[in-house]
Amino acid sequence: MLLFGCLLHFGMAHTQVLNMDRVSAPGDSAKKWSVSLQANTDYNSEKAIFDWDTQIDITRYLPGHHILVTKFSNTFTNTSGGNLQNAGYVHLRFRDNDTRRFNPEYFTQFQWDDLRGMKNRYLTGCNLRMMLKEGKQMDIYLGLGLMYEWEKWNFNGVSPDKLPPIHPDFIRTGLFKINQYVKISAKIFKTSEFTFTNFIQTRPDKYLKYPRVASFLQWNVPISKKVSVNLSFESIYDALPVVPIKNFYFNYKTGFTIAI
After folding, report:
1. DSSP bridge partners of 95
2. What value does the mean pLDDT of the chain take?
3. Reported pTM
């Protein structure tokens, strides 16, 4: 039934891997909206430069214990004294608000990353989300599902020594992929929260041994009821990139979040 639902959903609807939310049930049961703004400085290992990154998270709490999550992220890079928009994504997801041990979640995402050569990437699909543990000190969730992914790449991010002498202007792909993740959130020092999320996405065919593996670490330290400081580390390993760019890169971010 889950697979059938996924296939139906394909007709709808800063990394190469699906971005996750850190949404939990609000303390006020009457709350309908949750909005937060995040600003970060971002060190990008791909180009060894510092970026300025902004993010908006909007959550709508729906009747029947469901939520609709929207995330928007945009990164600006300072080059030669000018600002160049180089990366970003828009992510939308609908799921149960973790009131059941097993529930489906549906998602779609559009993104771009000019510095790496990703002109655009669009994906849509669904997961079966499994609650392994939920408590005041620690939450553990697993997800397993299927998605379809469209990508368009150019060779702007390829180093000169790896650039093929003859190549097309663009490479386009359209692939089914298995999507699986684990998410662990834990309270430390009573008030601050540590979140770890790891994704593995791979093709369900002979290329199963060439996954994309992404890890996200974030430490949120509240300094008031509405403002918190966040430190985060993101990495991705792509065993078989669409174009010959680096297999591994990472971002380190430090910034703050304001809840509205």
Report:
1. 67, 105
2. 83
3. 0.82
